[in-house]
Amino acid sequence: MKKARVVVTVKKDVLDPAGVAVKNALLRQGIKNLAEVRIGKVIDITLSDYASIDERHLIEEAARTVLSNPIMEDVYVEISDEMRNE
Amino acid sequence: MNNNLQPAIITFPGSNCERDVDKILRTRYHCAPYVVWHNNTAIPHDTTHVILPGGFSFGDYLRAGALAALSPIMKAVHKFALVGKPVLGICNGFQILCEAKLLPGMLLRNHHDRFVCSWQTMTWSSDGDNARKINLPIAHRDGRYFADAKTLLELKHRRQIILSYDDRDEHGHANVNGSMLGIAGIVGGPRRNIIGLMPHPERAVDAPLGNSGILILDAFVHGVNHEA
Prior knowledge:
By secondary structure, chain A is an alpha+beta fold.
């Protein structure tokens, strides 16, 4: 199968309150040397075998415009080998 | 009936404030609003005002307002807004307007990560002058207004910050949700015709409970197109 994984992270300078809450929980678990915890999203996309290079470009565009908001998020797309070797 | 006023309330899966908006528009302004489902591609041609009500469109999946901003009706809302006709987004409606890029910035998770439902003291000024202190209810988890420094400066200089929380920290962020510059509502669009608000004016329209929402709804219905 042709797969793409879209990874969305909160920009470095933007406060991530969920990350702060998780950091505090991990501190209570005894992990003392935590500097920071940030929470992002992973979006896995599977395409049919008929998917073309055009669709790969559309996914890369959607990752920037729909799946993430550039005002507060960074995004990158991991493309599976099968898809890359088109 | 008010023959000059024909609002359209746009509803999405998960909208939940459309009836409150409908009720105050009917009782105060004597009109019969259209209620338009998001899957439509057109707004009725005689529509004079568009309102995006509060709620949790599409369950806030991906980001609050992100999926609603892609609904078929939003192309028509874009067109309506960009010719300068009045559009009001309340709470989730504000989030949708930001995701649709009809207003700058976006609304992030509250800095304390909790849902807040409370009355807040705010300063309202539709034109940058004549500021008034009012109380309005808020109910949201994603109400932290965020934009880059350049956008914030522009909003300030162009007097686009029409509503701001009074209670702020030493950085000027709202204590209730972490909003930058204490922003609770902004105006934008080609003719200062697009309004986005986190508080719910439609929930503050009865004197015994506090009715300062009427001030804002009057400004929207009768026009806030004061060029700054």
